[in-house]
Structures are given as structure tokens and as C-alpha cells.
């Protein structure tokens, strides 16, 4: 019997997306440096995708310079993207891959009206319940909501396509709505997180150290901005 030498498997990896909205790269790198200084362990070797707005001035030289600067800050630049309709002659000469900006829908068979019966109900994702502490270096992913009945340690990461409930101290990283659900929320008994994120919008610990730090709190998204409120 032939030995299988490899497997191709899907995986969930937290990717930082840098949205470039202007042309002042000095200011951009300076601002990112401040963010890295606030949470160096989180950003160390973090995969990063550079996403350019349609209106920015983009050249091969600029892209290469930005990528080099980000690598010097210990990011791992995995590629760049922009409106797929904007094409450049210099693209094939770059070592940095361009990724599609389109959100591909999952390929599922289409049912006609005649094929749909009342018995065909769509099953909602089940809630995942964890009753043990999540330790540093561990990662938990839930297809629906995630409920943790213990503490989440620094360096641990919990992700959910729905909301996250932590009935203990949240000291690690919590990412809710990872599939784009902007209605997802994060609830915890004691907010001490390194990072929280909802639908790709994240906030570091230095921005959360308000009146609710080390207290029961919820995090929710309004107009692409994370809000922290007491429970």
C-alpha cells in the first residue's frame, strides 16, 4: 500500500487586514507601529493582507515599500487586494500575490420551488459549550455561538461565527462573527482581553481599559465601530 505523504486540510487562521485609505505611507506605518507596540505578542508573525481602497494611488514601488515596512514590523504579509476591476501592468512582476476581493458564495445546489417541501428545514448551527479553562496557546472555534464556563487565559484564542459568552475572566483573544455576522456580540464576566473582534473589526486592550475593565461587559458593533458597555 502506498504511503500518503501529505494532506490538504482547511484551517482557521486569524488574519490581520490593513485597509489602506490614504496615500501617506509614513503616517500609516507610524500608526501601525504604535499598535504593534501596544500588543507585540499578538502581532508577531501575524498573517497580514493589505487591502487598498479604490481611490488610493497604487504603484509597484509603493506596494513593495509598504510590504517591506510591514515585514520589518514582524508581520507576515500574505498578499494584497483591491477592486478586481482595477488591473495593473506591473502585477505579474511582483512577488506579492494579489488575492481576489470578491466574496465567493458557497457552492450549493439550487432548489427549485417544486423541490422544496415544508419538511426541509434549515438546521441552525448548534451552540458550543466549553466547561474547562482555555489555556494559553489553545484555540477554540464554534460554528454557532460559543459559551465558555471558565476563564480564557492570556495567549488563548476563541472564535465563533455567532456570539461569544465567557462566564469567567476573558484574558485572551475573542473573535465573534468571524463569518461576517455583524449582529454577533461578546459577553464576559470580567473583561481583561488582549483583543476582541466582531466581523473583522477589532480592538486592543489599551482601548478597552475604561470603567468596565475587570468588570462584566459586553462588546457589540455599530457602524463598523466596536462599543464596550457594562453589563
TrEMBL record:
SUPFAM superfamilies: Cell-division inhibitor MinC, C-terminal domain (SSF63848)
The keyword Cell division belongs to this UniProt entry's keyword annotation: yes
Alphabetical list of Pfam families matching this protein: MinC_C, MinC_N
InterPro entries membership: CAP/MinC_C, MinC, MinC_C_sf, MinC_N, Septum_form_inhib_MinC_C
Residues spanning the membrane: none
UniProt keyword annotations, A-Z: Cell cycle, Cell division, Septation
Domain Septum formation inhibitor MinC C-terminal: 129-228
Example of a GO biological process term: division septum assembly
Ranges for domain Septum formation inhibitor MinC N-terminal: 6-72
PANTHER family xref list: SEPTUM SITE-DETERMINING PROTEIN MINC
Subunit-level organization: Interacts with MinD and FtsZ.
Function comment: Cell division inhibitor that blocks the formation of polar Z ring septums. Rapidly oscillates between the poles of the cell to destabilize FtsZ filaments that have formed before they mature into polar Z rings. Prevents FtsZ polymerization.
Homology family: Belongs to the MinC family.
Protein name: Probable septum site-determining protein MinC
